[in-house]
Amino acid sequence: MTAIFKQKLAIEGGECEINSAFPVWPTYAQDEVNAVLNVLKSGRVNYWTGDLGQKFEKQFATYFGVNYAVALANGSVALELALQVLNIGEGDEVIVTPRTFIATVSSICLKGATPIFADVDLNTQYVTAESIQACITPRTKAIIFVHLAGWPCDMKSIIKVAKDNDLKLIEDCAQAHGAEYKGKRIGAIGDIGTFSFYPGKNLGAYGDGGAIVTNNSQLAKKCRMIANHGRIEKYNHEFEGRNSRLDNLQAAVLNVKLGHLENWTSQRIKIADFYLKNLEDINEIVLPKREKWARQVYHLFVIRIKQREKLQDFLREKGIQTGIHYPIALPKLQAYSYMGKSDNNLKANQLDAELLSLPIGEHLEISQAEEVVSALREYYKQQ
Questions:
Q1: Is 64 in contact with 213 (CB distance < 8 Å)?
Q2: Do the bridges between strand 210-214 and strand 140-146 make them parallel or antiparallel, or are there none, so unpaired?
């Protein structure tokens, strides 16, 4: 199941060897290769957010039902720019979850603001409105809500807290391309949504890439200018910005992949539904909570268990790889030791030793998911 399959792919009359986790080299991959070759032939490799980037921005905005999308160099930059265009900086506080990738929090610190960790609900792993409310001070300016693992949560209470306290709401959607809350794409709910196109994401480029989405024309314009050295027109710099643009090679790949995202998402949901149906009677496993009003896109399929390392070893012997996202709650990282919160009483800390990510992806077949379920049943039967 975890074997690497070697394939031959013809390119311009020659051959190259491909290492792929797919048992058969997918047909759409040739479209991606052709798109890259067309960029190389054009000589426009180093054109950032050119015609291909603009095409992607338009398609991406349409997919999410928003007015504007701005393609960027990576997802971390997207978070930083989101904070910057919302005028969040030195002396401000931003409420955030302790259970996310460090980029969510480092973006806050890099803008000179202070991250304030709210606590989570153990069943959903999401920060609660009550915990957010308890963290608000006169310095609080925004909430970054992370749609972790592709699971949208009930945003109603979060939106109310943000509005009642005049806080900006940033959605970190790096793991949730295409997820929906009550029929609306996430990323289009708050003031601004940020995305990553790191290769491992549900929609991934061949290298780094990112984007912001928003319905606010001024936020979109300012974000675009910051990412392009403070300008719209060449040499007409209105302020100092930075170089954070998406290059044509990545845009070409993303234009192809975006057309397949819905089919890939459907397969992820199919595998997740199989897990949920066939693991629900194993009492030792706490499955992710499924809500009727949510479209979960399952970037990860995360379960909660006890004695995680023992189960991991058993599955590894069966040829089944698992992951841990994330093994250390952010307040406990050395990077944030200066905050003095590693020993706090956050319930989020409890999850460090309990979370396990099962195999999930558009490349998985039901027969492979059956292997995972069979192995889990065998393990718990022995306990």
A1: yes
A2: unpaired
State the DSSP H helix or E strand holding residue 192, giving kind and residue range, or none if neither.
strand 192-196
Phi, psi for 248 (deg, rounded to 5): -65, -35
Helix axes 248-258, 51-64, angle to 10 degrees: 40
Helix (H), strand (E) at residue 17: strand 14-20
Q: Encode pLDDT of 194-210 as tens digits.
A: 999 999 999 999 999 99
Distance CA 301, CA 318 (A): 19
Q: What are the structure tokens assigned to 278, written together?
A: 């066939």
Nearest to 83 by CA among 102, 109, 101, 61: 109
Alpha helices in the chain, H assignment, sequence order: 27-42, 51-64, 75-85, 102-110, 129-135, 156-164, 217-227, 248-258, 261-279, 308-317, 366-382
Strand partners for 210: 72, 196
Beta bridge partners of 96: 117
Angstrom distance (rounded) from CA 302 to CA 296: 12
Radius of gyration of the chain (CA): 21
Q: Which residues contact 139 (CB under 8 A, 6 or more apart)?
A: 91, 92, 93, 114
Query: What digits encode the pLDDT tens for the residues 13-25?
Result: 333 343 444 444 5
Q: How confident is the model at residue 212 (pLDDT cuts 50, 70, 90)?
A: very high
CA angle, 352 as apex, 351 and 354 as ends, to 5°? 60
Is residue 64 within 8 Å of 211, Cβ to Cβ? no
pTM score, whole prediction: 0.91
Band the pLDDT of 371: cuts 50, 70, 90. Answer: very high
**Mean per-residue pLDDT, 53-65:** 96
- Quote the mean pLDDT of the chain: 90
CB 376 within 8 A of CB 279: yes
CA 380 to chain centre: 32
| Distance separating alpha carbons of residues 316 and 294, to the nearest angstrom | 32
Residue carrying the six token digits 């920060």: 127
CB burial string 177-186: b at 16+ within 10 A, e below: bbbbbeeebb
